[in-house]
Amino acid sequence: MAERLKAMGQEKYQNGFTLTLHPEVLNEPLSWHKPQMIFVNSMSDLFHESAPVAFILSIFDVMRRAHWHTFQILTKRAERLLELDPILEWPGNVWMGVSVENQDYAYRIDYLQKTRARIKFLSLEPLLGPIPTLSLKGIHWVIVGGESGPYARPIKIEWVREIRDQCLANRVPFFFKQWGGINKKKAGRVLDGQTWDQTPLPLFSV
């Protein structure tokens, strides 16, 4: 996607897949007066090893000051997340999540659980294998979804059911995003006759 945007002439993607900082837009959320759900760094990873600590702290400062918005952060760099946790300020409007594709990456949950983030979530997307032992202590939300696109790897219904049932047993909100595949719209997002749209919104005042 980054290379495609570069080819289209998008200004902010002229470096392609190379991590690039854009400090000139850092304060934009402060000018958006209507409360929004904002996905931070949707095309990158805030805790990437090349992201300067000072810049990460600046982002957290903006999120703290823009208290009327809700910010979602998702990372695969769970080790660095925990490493920086002691110097981060965690306001209630910041939701912190980690990506877990299968049981092999479940260790990221442990790093997240050890942080002081006030709202913690798991993104099991794309789900590429079963996660029979899902640690949900201190977790406030679980998102599951299949991979989409022409080279999408398959997802099995028993994997999704197993995760859903663990969430229900632990009273953790469960959100099933999609089955994915080549035609994700046709595949839809119905699981066992219903859609699953639970979120942690009713549980917190942010």
Task: Provide structural commentary.
This protein is α/β, with parallel strands linked by helices. It has one domain (37-200). It is built from six helices and six strands, in the order H-E-H-E-H-E-H-E-E-H-E-H. The chain has helices at residues 2-7, 53-65, 78-84, 107-113, 157-169, 184-187; strands at residues 37-39, 70-75, 94-99, 119-124, 141-145, 174-178. It has a six-stranded parallel β-sheet. It is globular. The two termini are 32 Å apart. The relative contact order is 0.10.
Q: In short, what is this structure?
A:
With 206 residues, this protein is α/β, with parallel strands linked by helices. The protein has helices spanning 2-7, 53-65, 78-84, 107-113, 157-169, 184-187, and strands at residues 37-39, 70-75, 94-99, 119-124, 141-145, 174-178. It has a six-stranded parallel sheet with strand order 1-2-3-4-5-6.
The helix/strand order is HEHEHEHEEHEH
Largest sheet: 6 strands, parallel
Number of domains: 1
Rg on CA atoms, Å: 18 Å
Low-confidence stretches: none
The helix-and-strand class reads: alpha/beta
Distance between the termini: 32 Å
Mean pLDDT: 93
- Gross morphology is globular
Q: How large a portion of the residues is in β-strands, by DSSP E?
A: 15-25%
Overall strand count? 6
Number of helices: 6
Q: How would you write the strand order of the largest sheet?
A: 1-2-3-4-5-6
**What's the helical proportion of residues?**
10-25%
Task: Provide the fold topology.
Elements: H1 2-7, E1 37-39, H2 53-65, E2 70-75, H3 78-84, E3 94-99, H4 107-113, E4 119-124, E5 141-145, H5 157-169, E6 174-178, H6 184-187
Parallel strand pairs: 1-2, 2-3, 3-4, 4-5, 5-6
